[in-house]
């Protein structure tokens, strides 16, 4: 074979092997490392799987935030004004987390339907709403204060 | 009055950009010297008018002109002056104006600093920059006018800058990042000009290389500052989140790293020409994609300002136009400029090629992970998010592979080399690296295999570089004379590769050896962490210029010896009422101590307190600074400062494409 052609053949072979390895790696890494967003209504309807990584977002229900006196455990509820999901989180909440504000919690649902959150995201400025939360509220037909649209 | 002047200057700049996009291009086509000769003046005019416009917006911010909408919604009379200044780009409209300003800066820089460039090439390059300028100026003018007034009914005071953005790091992070992002437009413009002219040779690579390296250096520093800011300002001690917006700046960096290496092969050996052009297009497209991701509000992120679908659509259209147009041009012209130079498998060329394959794979992985949620959402398949484990699982093996071969790069020779020579050169560095890898983790809290691997690879890189540099320096009459033998571009490579080694070590050591605890502490409590004792002394109220805060005083001792007293704060900003955590850090080359406050717990004055011990976390930022310095250093090389060739085109007939 012509040396240039041979070189090209090796190059193509190398690229094929390398890229299939990379794609395999990506597919492997993607498995179990992505999580899907559910609105509280989806969770209530039983669409959300138990024991898998997922996210739930909505507004934090007024008066629902309960902090433990002797640990960092916090309980609160997230609503889209149709249904409500209870959340348990241990740790420090973000600064803009608050009652009546939008929040997204990621974690796993336990058998009792409580979200055991490993991370809580709140909006990061006053005028901003996480797009997932805005969307979930739009679907439920309420605005962020709970008034029917 | 001032905002109107700014608006008018922006419109004038838009007109100049249109002329710049059309006239010199037409001149290059028809070989009209007068039209081509106008390009540099137009580029400078563009800079002047965008500069006036930017100065006007800045003045409005500094003078608290709350009748201007962006000032009213992003500033406040209590805001310290330096944050009023940085508030100019702490919002969508202003940051876009900064984008345009930096684009015109690069354009004018190309116009002024390219005396060696043939006029035809220069006018094509500047024209392409003009086209990009038209795109972004019209984006600014038609969808996000920064000078929009709130008249009548201007508010008495503004609603304040987001407290997260009130930070010195944020004053320079966006400009540096944009210098990098937008700087790749120069590489792109050179690539397009080469395709248009049908002339793609070593001199093209030599012209475009310093610009690309400088843009890459700025981007490295910009990303580093962003990471550092996230570390101390977001209040939970993370330094990289694989957040889509971070990825948006990281993708051009990865592709740009591939580009600067493939440009080296193109300049030195005339290889990979079509590939280099494609990479230049790809890199700038990723910069545009990044702008789209950040500015369209499709993602949840600190960087997403208020959402407006029209804006997203505009950038998406522009992106499609630029990518589609340049790829079409590439498809039409690339075969005409390809060439065939052969090289042996064991050579520096194949190592550079390997670098390109790895960086391209890394870029595509990040691109996939970033776009996957967007695509699934657009297809109505649900709202996914792709987390850090995905990126880490792909990135760690890729970087380990890269570092292994990277050690060979600097000692290898172009064209043809031999494995036995590599063995001879690198046997001792390799053995010493193994010893380092085995022994260095013993200094840590416990033996860790990941750290051992990182130490092995970093030592392999550093020792290989050291040996190569020593071989170049030795034999000179004196050490200083020997050091002078090293060219700026060699020093740049040295710095950047050392920086990479420092990054690898820092990232791995800090992720493996960090100790983090969130706990409840009351004044008087002590806790110990990683051999340090943290004592919560007292809680005091503090008043700042535009906030009030609770400040905790935490005394840190080690074996009874005082280390420092840290004072983290929980701030409430007066204008917006928003809460902000201000972490306190005791920095060090080998470890950081990090304390942040959560919220009060119970009624007896207890607080949730976050304590971190972070070994070697500074090494990655130090590494990024070294990479940046390396990038700047390469651009100082003498060979980039040749005089202008007397003829319009040095080789007659080279413009066969017109």
How would you describe this protein?
The complex is a heterodimer of chains A (149) and B (658). Helices cover 29% and strands 30% of the residues of chain A. Chain A has 149 residues and is an alpha+beta fold. Chain A has 2 domains: 1-34; 36-140, OB fold (Dihydrolipoamide Acetyltransferase, E2P) (Beta Barrel). Chain A has a 5-stranded mixed beta barrel with strand order 2-4-5-7-6. Chain B has helices at 2-30, 33-62, 69-74, 81-86, 92-112, 119-143, 168-197, 202-233, 244-269, 273-295, 309-337, 348-378, 388-406, 419-439, 449-473, 479-485, 488-513, 618-635, and strands at 384-386, 515-521, 526-529, 532-543, 547-558, 561-566, 569-573, 579-582, 584-586, 591-601, 606-615. In chain B, the strands form 2 sheets. In chain B, strands 3, 4, 5, 6, 7 and 8 form a 6-stranded antiparallel sheet that branches. Chain B contains 18 helices and 11 strands. The chains are: A alpha+beta (149), B alpha+beta (658). Strand 1 (34-38) of chain A pairs antiparallel with strand 1 of chain B.
